[in-house]
Structures are given as structure tokens and as C-alpha cells.
Amino acid sequence: MSASARGTARLLSGAGAAALLLPAALLLPAAVPAQAVSPVAYPARPPAADGKKGQELPAMPSSFDPDAGGEGEDVPCTPASREKAEKQDWSRQRLDLDRVHRHSTGAGVTVALIDTGVEAGAAGLGGRVTARGAAGDDCVGHGTFLAGLIAGTGGDSPGLAGIAPGARILALRGTDPRGRASAGLVVKALEEATEARAGVIAIAVALPRRDAALTRAVAAARRAGAVVVAAATPDPPRLGTDEIPARTYWPAGEPGVLSVADMLPVGARPDNSLPTEGIDLVAPGAGVVSGGPRGTGHYLGGGSSTAAAYAAGAAAVVRAARPGDSPDAVTRRLTATAYPADIPQLDPYAAVTTVLGDSAAAAGRAAEPVTVRDTAVADRATGRATVFVLLGSAAVLSVLWAGFAFTRARARGWRPASAED
């Protein structure tokens, strides 16, 4: 199959998948919490997959309200959810995780997750989480939520397993206990991930300004062999995004970093997304279901952090399936096998199973001179044949007209035609 044909087929299959999965997405709620998260944790109100009400789950905040309480006051942690999802959410169906897991589960790969921390004993993560320092205490719960998307087994809900349930999680703090990110904390976490030789580094936070130390830390991680995945934007703020200008966020804007943004079931970005440029991929980031740090209940989450977690999990399954591939090769594979769209859409199944052509050989072939066949003789012959056909047609019409005129003249007794005729 030619490249153009493959592209057309992929486009049609992507459109068909979206059409088939949209009804499933419509079963999700408009992020209406069944219980209050806490008086000071704003329920990030993740953009819902639709506007209809389905199963009700509390929203997972990405941070606590910075205006609530003083610096020295304790902040109530996100409480355990008393609600459980009744079905597999649209994001796992869209990413075709059941088929992905037949080929790779990410076994043997360590994913360093830089966010609010991860509770090592959370449902579906037991025994596969290593937390550095304060990262073992996830008061906000967002990091644990993302860890479930990356490497969770789903616990007693196997249909809600993560994208790489065989991978291990290295939990690192890139925020303070309230979920507020800082360049210094992200730099320290990157250095620890590099020292631990993590195969994939997922950075769920996004900073508005570039930092020289952060640039060096990202470059060092890539030199050490890590695939670095980062959220293209921070998760949307409470007060909307209409007045926020487009800008690049960091470290997603660093060279070699896979920048990932959120998408709805139809493939478009949510209306309240922060504007940015340089996005490499989009992945599910609205009405996504996962667990939290306490209890066995479920939450709804969304935003670029959720999409980045899915992309990091996809990098882990590719690294497990193709251990000889370089980090750049893994990144290229994720983007080259994505669903074709204005912004390519993550397709982990294609990333694991597609046989990509030899790009170097293809480039060599493209560089060879192309011989164009001389068609001048054939063109002249075609021209002569066309003239012959036209002249022949004219001759036939002349004969027919002459016959018609002869018949009419004889019928009149060879008299000239009159008005009565």
C-alpha cells in the first residue's frame, strides 16, 4: 500500500473510531462531583467529554486554591472518593488499550512521574511505586491519579488499567504540597530521574518561563537515554482562559521534549484549553477516569497533564517492545504512527505494532534522479488519431445529410422547396 493510501486509510479509521466511540463518551458526566473535594481544593472541573449527565464522580484537582489559608496553615487533603466508575471510559477505548496490552505492558520500564507525588499503596499501584523524599505523600492526589493512567492495573476494575500496567513508577515532586509547581523543584526531580536511569520521564507540570537550570536538566536527561514527555500547558485555571494570550510553556518547549496537549473524543481541544504552539501530540484529556491516593473510588480528571501521562505510558510500552530503539526513535515512532489530524492524535497500538520503513533508505531513494519517459512520439500519434476521428465523423455526417436531402427532393418531384414544405 502506498504512503498516501495508508494515510487515507488511517484518516478514515480515525474518523470511524471517533464516530464509534462518541456514544461511549456521551455516557460520561459533565464533571459534576458527587461529593465536595474540600473547601480549599478547587475541583479543576476537567472538561467533560460531553454535556450530558452520566455516572457521577468527584473531580480530581491538579492543585489547591492558592488563596485559601495561610502559608503555615494545614490544607485538608483530597478526600477518598465514595463513587466507583461503572464502565470503561472513552479514553481507554479510544487508545485501544485491550489490544495494546496483548503486545506490550511496559514491563521492565521505569517511568519517572514529576507532579504532586504518588501514594505507593494506592489501589492498583501496590508494589510498583518508588517515591523519593516527600513524593510518597500525595495530599492533592493528582500525581496518584496520573500514575494510575500510566501504570495502574485498575485494581478490582481491570477495565480501568493504565496504558503500561507492567511498568514501574518513580514518584518525584515537582510541586509543593498544595500542587504549586516551581522550576527549582522540577529541576531537582529531573536530576533524580536521570540519576535513577528512568526510561521515560513524564513532567505533568508546565511553567510560564524558561529557566536555564531546567534547560540543562532536560538536556542531561535526554543524553542519559530518557524519553522526556511534558504537558504542553498547565491545566486550565478556574476563571477561564479567554484573556490569556498564546505562549510557550516549559519544559514542553525544550528541544527533544515530546509536548502533549489534551483532546476531546472528537479530536478537538477543549474550549477552555490554554493556547500554545509547538504541540507534538494530543491525547485524551477530558472526562478521564482514574483512582486516587486514598480508598478504592474513582475520580474524573482532564487537562494536558492527563494527556501527557497517557503519552508517557505509550512511550513505556514502545520501549518495552523495542528495547533497542533510541529515545529519539521512540519519539519519532509515537508521532509518525499517530492518527493524522491538525495535531496528530496518540495511537499507542499503532506505535507498538507498525513496521516503519527505513527513513535513511527512503531519503536515499528520494535523492536519486527521476527519469521521465519521453512521450512526444505518442503525443503526436494521439494528435493524428484525434484529427482522423474528427474528419471521419464529419464525412459520415455529410453523407447522411446528402442522403436525407436526396430523399426529400425526390419526394417533391425535384421541385424547389416552398414555404408549404
UniProtKB/TrEMBL annotation:
Disordered, as annotated region: 45-92
Listed Pfam families: Peptidase_S8 (PF00082)
This protein's name: Peptidase S8/S53 domain-containing protein
Gene Ontology biological process terms, A to Z: proteolysis
SUPFAM superfamilies in UniProt: Subtilisin-like
Keywords: Hydrolase, Membrane, Protease, Serine protease, Signal, Transmembrane, Transmembrane helix
Biased segments, Basic and acidic residues type: 81-92
Domain Peptidase S8/S53: 106-338
InterPro entries assigned to the protein according to its UniProt record, in alphabetical order: Peptidase_S8/S53_dom, Peptidase_S8/S53_dom_sf, Peptidase_S8_subtilisin-like, Peptidase_S8_subtilisin-rel
Domain of life: Bacteria
Record flagged with keyword Transcription: no
Segment forming the signal sequence: 1-36
Keyword set includes Magnesium: no
Biological classification of the source: Bacteria, Bacillati, Actinomycetota, Actinomycetes, Kitasatosporales
Active site as annotated: 115 (charge relay system), 142 (charge relay system), 305 (charge relay system)
Residues passing through the membrane, by range: 385-406
GO MF term set: serine-type endopeptidase activity
Family of this protein: Belongs to the peptidase S8 family.
